[in-house]
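ingest -> validate -> predict -> emit
validate: passed (alphabet ok, no gaps, 350 aa)
predict: started
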Amino acid sequence: MLITKAVAPSYAELRPLKPHTTPTFPVYQDLVDSLVAAKMHPDPTVAHVLATCAGYAYSDVDTVAMIMARMGLEDNRCLRIAESVDVMFIVSSSFLVQSRDGRVVILCHRGTEPVNLINWLGDIEVTPEKIPIDFPGRPGSFEVHGGFYRNVRATRYAVLTALQRAVNGQSVLDGDESVPHPLEALYITGHSLGGAMAALMAVMLTTETAYAPIAERLRAVYTYGQPMIGTPAFADACNANPFLGRNVIRYVYSHDIVPQLPPAASGPFAHFGPERQYQRRGDGGQWADKTSPTRQLQHPLQIALSPLTLLTGALRVLRRFPFRASLEDHLPQHYIAALTPPGVRSEFGD
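emit:
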């Protein structure tokens, strides 16, 4: 297992060198207070910050720490936990971003690496894995996507160990280092495969009593371009859960094809939790709640144009795919741009 650490730069290091200019960063003043205070979800600030984190999770620990410092988490501690086992189709990477005062932690799972064949094989290895889940009132065994489950399981215990340190008022980087406050607000996020891992982690936290001290601090889960992770019976059980049914929020940008996967030919899968979809209109667009979740791809041609076509560079050809499915719409930069509130700077300061 690979564990890497970083401490983000201060705002003084991020601001322009010219005197008497308006500071470029942070994007959000008092971001820690905003994340702690957010009670109703989805929240536009939370959605933007977590989408940015999910997009930059495709980078390294220093970049994630820097970007989140720009967003408003100055001097954050950033921990990356990764595991790779090719023969098991495991390429798992998770980032924990802890605020300087310790009150906030963002757990961000990285999505599929575009040029990593093992990562892609894990995505398409849909053979269900039956796992026992103790849903209150309806415990039993449920089938989930085998590839996604193995990837979240690969780093789960190291992630939970770091989160428990945060609950205890310690640094996620080192249990010997204390922080001013114990964890108050935990958010989980991810794009694509990372979103699937985020949703599965939320299920584990909220249904396993041993994780209750961490789950009590979990405020919400925001995923972007997330594929389906389990059977309809699993989705129904999640929807019946008071937290999972309301606070695992899925964002779908326009005609993103990945939320429609696995295709129907792979067996029955279904989404759970609230869904918000970006609807393009002319040069702009807006997010709207969907009354019914995105369903699986059905048409044979759609199945042939699965995410493996990303490797052929056919993104723009599929932008206006007649079956309302697009790979270009899956790119994380679209989610970040569409979720940036009007008048709010980007992570680049513009």
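The chain is about 30% helix and 20% strand.
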